[in-house]
Design brief:
This protein is mainly beta. It has 2 helices and 39 strands. The two termini are about 50 Å apart. One of its GO terms (biological process) is iron ion transport.
Length: about 700
C-alpha cells in the first residue's frame, strides 16, 4: 500500500471511529463475553486487546476453519504450507512451520479448554459459539504457550430446552458439507449436546501429471459431545469430548507458479484427535470459588509431501526425486486448579478480588521420519513437563480506577533424544506477569494501560550437522507496553476499541533455514533456532461496530504493524547473513477487514465484506515477499423461524493471493535448478449454497 492509500485509509477509519452523531436506533449490539480470562468479562470491559468473532460472523463468512475468520482480528496472520493454516502469528510473532525439530509455541490454541497448539487442523468452526483472539503476552493466565497471545475456540454449550438443527452445503470444486447438532435436557439437572459434521472438497489445484483434481483434497470429520450437570446449587460439572478425523491431501506447490502441480507422489496432511476436558465450578462459600480443568488429548498426524514437486522424467539428465514423511504422535495432559474470591471474599479492606492457582502439564511428542535419502527412519522423542503457580489481584483504588496485577512462576523441563545420538535435557524457571491500570472516563468509555511480560522456553536443535555452539537456544522474553480506549456510543449502537502497543523482544528465537544443493541436485535443508539479540514490534489496532440504522451495520478492523530485528546475523557456508533492521516474517504493515450488512426485506439480508493485507516476508531466512492483496466476499441469506438458506461467495474476484512462500534455492531441473521464488496460493473464488433446518 502506498502513502496516499494509507492516508485515505486512515482518514476513513478515523471518520468511522470518531462519529459523534446523536442518532440512535432501537436495535442494540449484543453483549459479547470473553471466556478465556479468569472471570467472564464483556469484551468492552476487559482491559486488553481482544477480538471476539461470534457465531453470526462465522456464519456470514460461511467459514469452515479458523483461518477463514482471522482477518476479523487486527494484526493477526497465519501460515499454511499445509492443507489448512495451522500456525498463527499475532503482532508479527509466531511459528510458521514444523519439520524435524520440536516447536515451542508463541501463539497458543485452545479448543473448549483443551490445548491444541500446533494441531490447528482440528480448528474447524462447526457449531462454534465464538472465537476469541487475545493479543499480547498472556503471562499470568497461560504462561509459556502464549508469548504473543492466545486463540480460544468455544463451541456451543448444552441447552436446557430441546433444540437442534441440520445444515447442508454445496459449492464449486465438488465441495460438500453436512452436519447437525442436538441439545437439551437428559435428566434432572443434566443437559447434553452432540454436534457432528463432515466436509469434503476436491481442493483448489489440478495435478496435470496424474490427471487428478483431488491431490490437495479436504476430507474432514469433526464431532463434539458435551455434558453439563448441576450437582447442587453451588457446583457445576462439565464434560467435553472432541473427535477429529482430518484426512486432507497436500500437493500445494507448483514449479510453473500456478494452480497446476506436477507431483508424482502427492502428500498427506492428516490428523486424528481424541480429547476430553472435565471442568468443575464450585462456590465453596461466599468467600471462595473453586474452578478446576482437567484435560487430555491423544493425536496422530501425518505431514508428507513430494519434495521435488515433479515427476520422474521431467528432466532425465539432471532431476532428483524424493519424498518426505513426518509421522507424529502427541499426548498431552494438564490440570489447572484455582481459587477465586467470592462476593464476600475480597481482601485489603474489601477493595480487591483475587485469583490463586496451580497448573501442571505433561506433553509427549514422538516422531518417525521416512525420507528418500535416509538409510533408516529417523525417530525422536520429546517429553516436556511444566508446573506453574500464578496469582492475580484486582484492586479498586477509586470509584472509577482499578489496578490489576498478575504474576506467574513456571518450572519447565524438556527431555529430548533421537536415534542420531542427540540427547539433551533443559530445565529452567520462567517468570511472567502483567500490571494494568484502567479508569472509567465515563460510564461508556474505559481507558487502560498495561505492562506485560511473556516468555517462551528455550530448547535443543536436533540437526546433527550443525555446530555444537548452535545446539541449544535460550528462552525468549517479550516485554509489552499497551494503551487502549474502549467506548460504547449512541446508546451502545457504536462500539469502538483502539489499542497501541510497543513490544521489546529479548533473545528473540529466530528460525534459520537454508538449502544446500547436493551433487545429485537434491536439496538438504539445515534448520535451527538461534537467538537474535533483540527485536522490536509496535503498532496500532482499531475495531469498530456500528448499527447505523435498525437495518444497516458497518464493522471495521484495522491493524498497523512495524517490526524489525536488532543486531541479528548468522553464519552459513556462503558467509555471514546480516538481518539487522529487516522486518520480521509474516508481519504485514497494514491489514484491514470491513463488512456492510443490510436487511433488504423481512428475513432477507445481504452482507458484503472485504479484507486487505500488505506485503510481508515469508521467512526470516530469505527475503522473498508476498504480494499485497484485496479480497471481496458476499452472502445473500433468507432466514425464517425454522429454516435458512444462503448463497455465498468468497474471493469473488478470484485473486491469487499467497499464504506461504520459499526462496533462496532452485527446485526446477528444467532451468538448471536456478534460484527462484515458490508460493502456495490461498483459496480461489468459492461459491456455494447452504441450507439450515432448525427443530
Amino acid at each position: 500500500m502506498n502513502t496516499r492509500q494509507n492516508a485515505q485509509l486512515s482518514l476513513l477509519i478515523l471518520a468511522i471511529a470518531g462519529t459523534t452523531s446523536t442518532y440512535a436506533d432501537d436495535i442494540q449490539l449484543d453483549t459479547v463475553v470473553v471466556e478465556a480470562d479468569f472471570r467472564q468479562t464483556d469484551v468492552q470491559q476487559i482491559p486488553e486487546a481482544v477480538t471476539v468473532v461470534g457465531s453470526q460472523q462465522i456464519e456470514a463468512r460461511s467459514a469452515e476453519h479458523l483461518e477463514q475468520v482471522l482477518s476479523f482480528a487486527p494484526n493477526v496472520n497465519f501460515s499454511s504450507g499445509a492443507s489448512r493454516g495451522r500456525y498463527f502469528q499475532i503482532r508479527g510473532i509466531g511459528e510458521r512451520s514444523q519439520f524435524v525439530d520440536p516447536v515451542n509455541p508463541s501463539v497458543g490454541l485452545m479448543i473448549d479448554g483443551i490445548d491444541m497448539t500446533g494441531l490447528g487442523a482440528a480448528a474447524t468452526l462447526f457449531d462454534v459459539q465464538q472465537v476469541e483472539v487475545l493479543r499480547g503476552p498472556q503471562g499470568t493466565r497461560f504462561g509459556a504457550n502464549a508469548l504473543a497471545g492466545m486463540i480460544n475456540i468455544r463451541s456451543n454449550d448444552p441447552s436446557k430446552e430441546s433444540e437442534g438443527y441440520i445444515k447442508a452445503r454445496a459449492g464449486n470444486y465438488d465441495s460438500y458439507g453436512l452436519g447437525g447438532a442436538v441439545s437439551g435436557g437428559l435428566a434432572d439437572n443434566l443437559q447434553g449436546r452432540l454436534a457432528v459434521q463432515g466436509f469434503q472438497s476436491d481442493g483448489y489445484l489440478d495435478n496435470t501429471y496424474l490427471n487428478r483434481d483431488d491431490t490437495n483434497k479436504l476430507d474432514e470429520i469433526i464431532a463434539r459431545g458435551k455434558l453439563a450437570y448441576q450437582l447442587n446449587n453451588d457446583t457445576d460439572l462439565g464434560l467435553t469430548y472432541l473427535y477429529a478425523d482430518i484426512d486432507n491431501g497436500y500437493d500445494a506447490f507448483s514449479l510453473d507458479k500456478n494452480r497446476n502441480t506436477l507431483s508424482d507422489q502427492p502428500g498427506r496432511d492428516s490428523q486424528d484427535t481424541q480429547a476430553v476436558a472435565l471442568t468443575v465450578d464450585s462456590r465453596l462459600n461466599n468467600d471462595v470459588q473453586l474452578q478446576a480443568e482437567l484435560t487430555g488429548s491423544w493425536n496422530d498426524s501425518e505431514y508428507s509431501y513430494d519434495e521435488d514437486w515433479a515427476y520422474v522424467g521431467i528432466a532425465p539428465d539432471s532431476e532428483y526425486s524424493s519424498f518426505d514423511q513426518y509421522l507424529r504422535n502427541y499426548q498431552r495432559t494438564s490440570a489447572d486448579i484455582r481459587l477465586l474470591s467470592g462476593p464476600t471474599g475480597r481482601v485489603i479492606n474489601n477493595s480487591s478480588d483475587w485469583v490463586a492457582g496451580i497448573y501442571v502439564m505433561q506433553r509427549n511428542e514422538d516422531l518417525k521420519r521416512n525420507y528418500t535419502y535416509l538409510s533408516a527412519p529417523f525417530t525422536s522423542s520429546l517429553e516436556s513437563q511444566a508446573v506453574a503457580f500464578y496469582g492475580e489481584l484486582s484492586s479498586d483504588v477509586s470509584v472509577s480506577t482499578r489496578i490489576i496485577s498478575g504474576l506467574r512462576f513456571e518450572h519447565w523441563e524438556n527431555d529430548y533424544q533421537d536415534n542420531n545420538g542427540i540427547n539433551g535435557n533443559t530445565a529452567e524457571g520462567l517468570i511472567g506477569g502483567k500490571i494494568t491500570i484502567e479508569t472509567l472516563l465515563s460510564p461508556s468509555q474505559m481507558l487502560y494501560g498495561s505492562l506485560a511480560r511473556g516468555y517462551k522456553a528455550g530448547g535443543i536443535n536436533t540437526d546433527p550437522d550443525i555446530s555444537e555452539d548452535n545446539r541449544e537456544f535460550d528462552t525468549e522474553f517479550n516485554n509489552t507496553a499497551e494503551v487502549g480506549l474502549k467506548s460504547s456510543l449512541l446508546d451502545d449502537e457504536l462500539t469502538t476499541r483502539i489499542a497501541a502497543f510497543y513490544i521489546q523482544r529479548k533473545n528473540q528465537q529466530v528460525k534459520s533455514s537454508y538449502a544446500i544443493q547436493n551433487d545429485d541436485n537434491s536439496l538438504t535443508f539445515q534448520d535451527y533456532l538461534a537467538n537474535a539479540a533483540e527485536g522490536r514490534n509496535y503498532g496500532v489496532e482499531l475495531e469498530s461496530d456500528w448499527n447505523i440504522t435498525p437495518s444497516l451495520n458497518w464493522a471495521v478492523s484495522y491493524g498497523y504493524l512495524k517490526t524489525e530485528f536488532i543486531d541479528y546475523h548468522y553464519q552459513t557456508d556462503d558467509g555471514e547473513v546480516n538481518k539487522d533492521g529487516r522486518a520480521q516474517a509474516h508481519a504485514p504493515e497494514n491489514s484491514l477487514a470491513t463488512s456492510l450488512t443490510t436487511q433488504l426485506l423481512n428475513g432477507l439480508s445481504l452482507r458484503i465484506e472485504s479484507e486487505a493485507k500488505d506485503t510481508f516476508y515469508f521467512s526470516d531466512s530469505h527475503d522473498e515477499k508476498s504480494k499485497a492483496y484485496v479480497l471481496w466476499h458476499a452472502r445473500l441469506a433468507y432466514d425464517s423461524n425454522n429454516y435458512a438458506v444462503a448463497l455465498y461467495g468468497r474471493n469473488l474476484t478470484n485473486r491469487d493471493y499467497e499464504v506461504r512462500g520459499f526462496g533462496g534455492f532452485g527446485n526446477d531441473p528444467r532451468n538448471g535448478y536456478a534460484n527462484d521464488r515458490y508460493v502456495q496460493y490461498g483459496e480461489p473464488r468459492l461459491v456455494g449454497i447452504e441450507g439450515t433446518y432448525r427443530f
